[in-house]
Description:
Elements: E1 2-5, E2 10-14, E3 31-33, E4 61-70, E5 79-84, E6 91-95, E7 98-103, E8 110-113, E9 123-132, E10 150-155, E11 158-172, E12 176-187, E13 193-202, E14 208-218, E15 223-233, E16 246-254, E17 257-266, E18 271-274, E19 278-281, E20 284-285, E21 288-293, H1 306-318, E22 323-326, H2 333-342, E23 345-349, H3 367-382, E24 388-395, H4 406-420, E25 426-430, H5 444-447, E26 452-456, H6 462-468, E27 473-479, H7 484-493, E28 497-502, E29 517-519, H8 547-556, E30 562-567, E31 576-578, E32 586-587, E33 599-606, E34 610-615, E35 618-624, E36 632-638, E37 643-650, E38 653-661, E39 668-673, E40 677-679, E41 684-692, E42 705-712, E43 714-720, E44 734-736, E45 741-748, E46 753-760, E47 767-774
Amino acid sequence: MQRIDLNRDWRFHLGDPSGAFWTQPDPSGWRTLDLPHDWSIELPRSADAPSTASGGCYPMGRGWYAKTFTAPIDWTGKKVLIEFEGVYMNAEIWLNHHFVGRHPYGYTTFTCDLTPYLKLGEENMLTVFVNNEGQMNSRWYSGSGIYRFVWLMVGAPVHVAHWGVSVTTPEVAASAALVRLQTRIENEGDAARPVTLVQHILTPECTVAAKGTTTQVVPAGGDLVFRQRLEVADPLLWSPATPSLYRLETEVLVAGSAVDTASTSFGIRSISFSANVGFLLNGEPTLLRGGCVHHDNGPLGAASHARAEARKVELHKANGYNAIRCAHNPPSPAFLEACDRLGMLVIDEAFDCWREGKNPHDYHVAFDDWWQRDLDSMVLRDRNHPSIIMWSVGNEVKERDGRGGGGAIAEMLAHRVRELDPTRPVTAAICLVSDDAGGWEATDGVFVALDVGGYNYREVHYQGDHARHPDRVMVGLESTAMEALEHWEAVETLPYVIGDFVWTSLDYLGEAGIGRVEIGDEAKGLGVYPWHQANCGDLDLCGFKRPQSFYRDILWGRGQPLYMAVHEPVPEGEVRAVSYWGWPLVRPSWTWPEHEGETLIVDVYSASERVELLLNGRSLGTLPSGRTERHTATFEVPYEPGTLRAVGYNGEEQAAEWVLETIGPAARLRLTPDRVELDGPDDLSFVTVEAVNSQGRLDPNADCEVRFVVEGEGEIAAVGSGNPVTEESYRGNTRRAFHGRCLVVVKSSGTLGTTTLRAMADGLEAAEVTLKTVARRLVSTSCRL
Length: 785
C-alpha cells in the first residue's frame, strides 16, 4: 500500500472544546503544530500533579487533534487506512464526524479504516481525542498526545495486507542462506482474482540477490498467504559489528498489471539459545551487554523524532552496549530502524502488567479485551527487524507468583507469540517474590511457559535455579549499577546466563529520584518535588556519561582502564545514603573552592592490580584495586588545588593513568553539535553547551544561565541538562548549566538553508555555531529496482 506522510499542519486543543465538541468540534481557532507531539512536556510541573513523582510531576489531562486533507478522485475503489504509530492514550478517532475507531493502549501501533467515510475529491477532517486524564496509569513519565508518526495507507482492491510480509532466514551459512517469505494478499473486490506475486531480494548495494514468482487465486472479500523460498548466495550477515541490511521488493500483479508494491528491510542472521553454550549469533557466542531504556527522549519528552531515536542508539553503541531492552512496551518504529541500521540487539517488550494492575488506570483495565490485539501489533509490526532477538510478554507482573492463574496467562501470551513468530524465544522479567507469596520457587509456573527466563535483580538465584532446571536459559533483565560486578561476572562465568541489562543505561523522566543520594541514613522510594528525573542512568538525561558508565567500561574491558572521581564533600556530622538504584555522588573534578584542607574521598576505578595516587607530584600511597577491592581503590586526600594523578600498575609496569586538575573559572561558552548538516526538514542537531575556562577546560562548577538565539531555517526544539531537581522547563530558550554543561536541541524547518545558534551567559564570551539543512538524502535501504 502507498504510504503517505500525514504529520504536518495538525490543529491541537488542550482540554475539551466548548459547544457540541464530541461529534462536531470546530478546530479553526486551535493551535497549529506538526507531529510527533507531546503536550505534557510543554506544561509546568507541580508538586500536586496527579501523575505524582512517578510521572515526573507533569500535568497529563485530555487533548484534541484535528487534520484536514483532500482525498483525490483516483482513490475511488481503493482501500484507505490511517496508521497511528503511538498515541498516549485512550485514543478515539473520527473522520468527517463518523466514528472510526478507538485504541486504549498508549504504546502499540494501530490502524483505522477510513474508506467508508471518505469524501473523494473533497476536503476531509480527521479528529482525534486523547484521554490521559485517568491518573495514575504509568510508573514512569508517559507523555500525552500523538507522540509518534501518523500515516495514510492507500491500496488497490488487491493489495499486500497491512504488516502482511514476513521474512525469516531459517538456514544461514557462509556460502548461502535460505530466505523464507510469507506474504498475505487481501482482495477487497467482489470477484476472485488470479494474483501474481513477484519478489526480488536486493543486496545492501542494491543488486538483485534472488527473485521469485508465484501465482494464486485470491478469493473475493478474502485473503491468501503466498509462500516463497529463495536462496541468497554468499550472504552478508547482520550483526552489531556488521549491520548489513537486505531489502525485499514485492510487486503484486493482476491481469499482468502492477496494482501494489511493498518494500521490506531485513537482515540475514541466525540466533540460537541453550543452557550449554548460551546465545549464539551467526554461530558465534555473544554476551549481551545490555541496558534498559524507556520510550522518552529526555528533553524532548515522549515525542518520537526519528533523529532522537537514532541518537539514543548511537549513544549506546558509543558506550559499549550491544543490546537494549525496550522497557516496558513496544518502542517506536524509528527506534527499531535505527537498531537495524546501526547494529543493536533488542528485546521487544509488550506489557508492564497483566490482569492485576500496579496503578488504578494502567493496562490491567484493558488487558482481557485487548491483550491479543496489542501483542499481535507488536509482533506483526516488528517481526522483520533483525535487531530483535527476543520477545518479552511482561515485566514484574504481579501474577509472577502464580496468583490469578499467572502460569496460564504466561502460557497464553507465549503461545500467541509463537503462533505469529516461531523464530525467536519468548521471555518475561521476573522479580522478587515474598515468602508470604510462596517464595522464589512460586515463579516456576510462569518460568515454565518461557523459552528464556528473565531475572530482575535475582542474580542470587542463578546457580540454584540451574541446579533445579538445568535446561533453563537465563538473562538478567534488570540489575543496578552498584551490583554490576556480580551480575557481569555471572554472565562471564555461567554459560546459561546470556547477558545482563542495567536499570538503566540512559536516564529518563519520571520514577523521580529512584537513583538519588540523600543526606541521612536511607534513600528509599521516590524523591519529592522538584525531583522529576529518575537519576539512575549510566548516561544522564542528555546522554552525558556518568561515573558508573566508566566503571562499567572497566568491567567490560573497554574504553579507559582507569578513571578517577571525587566524592562531593559532606557537611560535618552528616552522612549520605545511596538508593538501591543509585551511585555515590562523585564527580571527575579536582576543583573544590572553599574546601582547602578538608579531607576528600577519592575513588579510582581500575582494571589494574594496584593504583598509586599523587597530589602535586607527591605520592599519597598505593592501594590494591583488583577483584577483591571491586576494582576500586579509595583514598582519603586533604584537598589542595593543583594536580591529582592516579597511576595503575600491573606488577611493576605502569598500565594506565588518569589526571584531574584544578580548573580556573569559566571564561567563555563552547558549542559542540553532534552534526552540523541536517537531513531535510524536521531533523535535529543535539548541541552540547559547555562553560570553559581560558584554556578551553570545562569548569565543573559552572551553573550559569545560558540564553539561546536562533536565526535562519531552524528553531529550538528543547533545552535540558542532567539536573534531576531543577524546576526549569525543557521548552524555551534558556537553561542553567549543570556541572558546567547543558544541551540545546535545534530542529530544522521545512526550508533548506542555514541556521545560526548563538549562546550567551552573563560574564562569559558568547559562542555560536552554524548548521545547514540540506535536501533529504537517499540511503541504500530505500533502493528500488
